[in-house]
Design brief:
161 residues, alpha+beta, 3 helices, 6 strands, 21% strand
Length: 161
């Protein structure tokens, strides 16, 4: 491979790397309560819940490291992080899968509840009884709720536009 081609490839890679390392700041409005993963220009990653609305003109982004509760008391001061927007190189927003987990749980619960109810009907009921219908409804409700809870707890990070 000719020397000039090697140098051109290396120069191109350096430019792409330098551009990706530039500070991104905040590109759009961020509402308080949003859970973010903030990448800073020094390589640190801060995960937290936004405490104050932020816009592209904001000079700082204030987050609370407690994801379940908000930092309101003085004792929560250690969990607060104030990040200058000039140091932000990337922002990811958390998206859960509660809906997907709930749908999968409902389907599995309905199927399992129907099978249990059908087994009860076959062995316990002399004629017809409502065991399959009741089993289907209870199974769907219980496993649907469990699936939603488990699915909502799984975080998927999406780059913020």
């Amino acid at each position: 491979m000719p020397r000039f081609l090697n140098r051109a490839i290396i120069l191109g890679l350096l430019i792409v790397t330098a551009r990706s390392a530039q500070a991104q700041g905040i590109r759009g409005p961020i509402l308080s309560g949003t859970v973010l993963r903030v990448h800073t220009s020094d390589g640190a990653i801060v995960v937290g819940r936004v405490l104050r609305d932020a816009t592209p003109s904001s000079s700082t982004l204030e987050v609370c490291m407690h994801l379940v509760q908000t930092c309101t008391a003085k004792r929560d001061a250690a969990a607060r992080r104030i990040i200058p927007t000039a140091r932000i190189s990337g922002l990811d927003v958390r998206r859960g899968h509660a809906a997907v987990g709930g749908i999968i749980g409902v389907l599995l619960g309905a199927g399992g509840g129907y099978l249990v109810g059908h087994d009860i009907q076959t062995h316990e009921c002399a004629g017809s009884c409502a065991a399959p219908a009741i089993g289907t409804i209870l199974g769907a409700a219980l496993l649907g709720g469990v699936g939603a809870l488990l699915g909502g707890g799984v975080a998927r990070w999406v780059p913020m536009p």
